[in-house]
Design brief:
Layout (H helix, E strand, L loop, with lengths): L2 H11 L2 E6 L4 H6 L2 E3 L1 H10 L4 E5 L2 H10 L4 E3 L15 H10 L4 E5 L4 H5 L3 E3 L4 H7 L4 E5 L2 H10 L4 E4 L12 H10 L4 E4 L5 H4 L4 E2 L2 H10 L4 E5 L4 H8 L4 E4 L14 H10 L8 H17 L2
Parallel strand pairs: 1-2, 1-3, 3-4, 5-6, 5-7, 7-8, 9-10, 9-11, 11-12
Helix pairs in contact: 1-13, 3-4, 4-14, 11-12
The structure holds 1,3-dihydroxyacetonephosphate (13P) and iron/sulfur cluster.
């Protein structure tokens, strides 16, 4: 039996479901039941009636699944797969901001630790951040941890005072305007699509800016046939499935999230077999981090 066949067999026997982010490797996306962006996967995690969730992604994603669905066992194929940006917010700074502004809303990108979420009023993902910030009653918004997504939201919602934090995604923040210019010279007929975790000078060159699912939906609806992709390489797998006739070029080959690639088929099989690597969140932490996540799901409707 192949590894994939063994996974299918165990999944059925144990009533398990496999969730995968677009950034994990192709072989893992291939065996997943649900593939999506952070927002979509959080909704699936909340609503599944499987007994076990195998989360092919990084720890903040598994944590959110465990917080939203405490009756399920959430298993991580690799417990060390983490998102550097998820730690880039300082609790003392949040407290300081709250003292400074009476009507402050702390808006927390889902790419954050459960502890950081507990100090927040609402979570967002890149797919719903603009909509949620726009609809909050508060004028003063502290957007954590991603400074680039925060700046993008600030530009889209000029009526709010969006205060920025210095966090960043090391993968997206490493993309440069020079790379964009080079890629456009090489592929002059291609449209440039980019994730809002990139720097402003990169976004300024874009034909479309959006989350991973936003980029995928744009390509599906668009009449074009050639695209330069300014996000993590894993998304190409879904893009090719949705539009096999189109050509996709990565901005450059080096923009890989090593943590997402720690998830392999063998590790998925191993956690399914042994039911180890369970993501545990204390009940106190879970309850405190649940409110901003649930508020996101409500406000994004
Ligand atoms: P989403 O488009 O899913 O929000 O992905 C961004 C990301 O970097 C996830 O880690
Ligand atoms: Fe975190 Fe960036 Fe990797 Fe996403 S791509 S998990 S934001 S480090």
């Amino acid at each position: 039996m192949s590894v994939a066949e063994e996974i299918f067999k165990l999944k059925k026997e144990k009533n398990a479901v496999i969730l995968a982010h677009y950034y994990v490797s192709d072989e893992v996306q291939e065996i997943a039941d649900y593939i999506g962006d952070s927002f979509y996967l959080s909704k699936v995690a909340k609503n599944t009636d499987a007994d076990i969730i195998v989360f092919c992604g990084v720890s903040f994603m598994g944590e959110s699944a465990a917080i939203l669905n405490p009756d399920k066992k959430v298993l991580m194929p690799d417990m060390t797969a983490d998102c550097a940006m998820a730690h880039m917010a300082d609790i003392n700074n949040i407290k300081k901001m709250r003292e400074e502004y009476d009507d402050l809303a702390v808006v927390c990108y889902i790419n954050s630790t459960a502890e950081i979420k507990t100090y927040s009023d609402v979570c967002v993902t890149s797919a719903n951040a603009v909509k949620i910030v726009k609809n909050l009653p508060n004028r003063n918004i502290f957007f954590i941890p991603d400074g680039n997504l925060g700046r993008y939201v600030k530009e889209q919602v000029p009526e709010k005072n969006v205060i920025l934090n210095k966090g960043y995604c090391p993968i997206h923040a490493a993309m440069t305007k020079e790379e964009v210019i080079k890629a456009k010279e090489k592929y002059p007929h291609a449209k440039f699509l980019v994730h809002p975790e990139c720097a402003k000078e990169v976004l300024d060159e874009a034909d479309y800016t959006g989350s991973t699912s936003g980029i995928i939906d744009f390509v599906e609806a668009d009449g074009g046939s050639e695209y330069i992709i300014g996000t993590e390489a894993g998304v190409i797998y879904e893009l090719r499935k949705r539009k096999p006739s189109a050509k996709f070029h990565l901005l450059s080959d080096g923009h890989i999230c090593k943590d997402m690639k720690l998830v392999t088929l063998d590790k998925v099989l191993k956690v399914l077999k042994n039911e180890d690597n369970e993501l545990m969140v204390t009940e106190e932490l879970r309850k405190a981090a649940l409110a901003p996540l649930e508020r996101m799901l409500e406000l994004a409707k």
